[in-house]
Write a structure and sequence with these properties.
The chain is built from eleven helices and no strands. It is mainly alpha-helical. Helix 2 (33-52) crosses helix 3 and helix 9 (165-203) packs across helix 10 (210-235).
């Protein structure tokens, strides 16, 4: 079964989405979209360092993503507006990463594959890394679900209940870094944030509970992977962007439907 490149691509996409969907809900609830984007952009610097020091791409991306998260957490309380801080760090990390890649000697780098993903080239080893990271994130989020949810909805109530919101923020940050590291092969650093945000945003108007939103976001994400891969095969389009396009079309359909229902109720 794993001898088929299309089957490996589908399994890789599904693995990423089962981890990205619940995290995407927290990104939407906490209005952290730009944070996810900044963490993803830092990944290209991790790729350059990994290639330069001849270590695992996953390890390099994970290390730099975690460093980005810690840097943001450290500087956020020192007088910088969060959007300004994230804008500076996000684009600076991407620029430094691209420059670092250009300095690599004797290493052939397919920069487009890292920027936009190369899901059709996923190997068995990549599958093991993707599913290992995805299951780790999923287990961590399930374990800390109640605490993460309470610290997101009401930090003061979380404090009163003995929950440290900063600790839960760290758990969320660690999980985001892992998802970025495993998703780089699927959609690349430019579109990773879309996998987090778009399925969760599409699921939000259709459900009434946080748990249902996480499950529906996963369903939408997996459907986007399957539809995007099929569309890429039929139209000879790039697979990673095609996955995001399908997710965006689902979001558009949900938004239009929600607007129509709102208009009918208003009448």
């Amino acid at each position: 079964m794993l001898d088929s490149f299309m089957m490996r691509a589908m399994l890789a996409g599904v693995g990423v989405m089962i981890a990205a969907a619940p995290l995407g809900c927290f990104v939407v609830w906490r209005r952290m979209a730009y944070f996810g984007d900044a963490t993803a952009h830092a990944a290209i610097l991790g790729v350059a360092l990994a290639l330069g020091f001849e270590i695992s791409i996953f390890a390099g991306v994970l290390g730099v993503s975690l460093a980005m998260a810690v840097t943001v957490s450290t500087l956020s309380g020192r007088g910088y507006a969060m959007d300004t801080l994230l804008g500076v760090l996000s684009h600076s990390a991407l620029a430094f990463g691209l420059v670092a890649v250009s300095f690599l000697q004797g290493v052939r780098v397919d920069l487009m594959a890292y920027l936009f993903g190369d899901i059709l080239a996923v190997s068995r080893g990549d599958l093991a890394v993707i599913w290992g990271g995805a299951l780790l994130v999923l287990a961590l989020v399930c374990w800390r679900w109640s605490a993460l949810l309470m610290s997101t909805l009401n930090p003061d109530m979380a404090h009163a209940s003995g929950i440290d919101p900063k600790r839960e923020q760290l758990v969320l940050t660690l999980s985001l870094a892992v998802v970025v590291a495993v998703a780089i092969k699927v959609v690349g650093v430019v579109l990773i944030a879309a996998l987090l945000i778009v399925p969760a945003a599409a699921a939000r108007p259709l459900v009434r509970t946080p748990e249902a939103m996480a499950v529906l976001a996963a369903v939408i994400g997996v459907s986007s992977v399957l539809g995007g891969l099929q569309g890429a095969l039929v139209f000879d389009a790039p697979a990673g962007p095609s996955i995001v396009c399908v997710a965006a079309l689902i979001f558009l359909a949900v938004s239009v439907g929600d607007g129509v229902r709102g208009t009918l109720r208003g009448k």
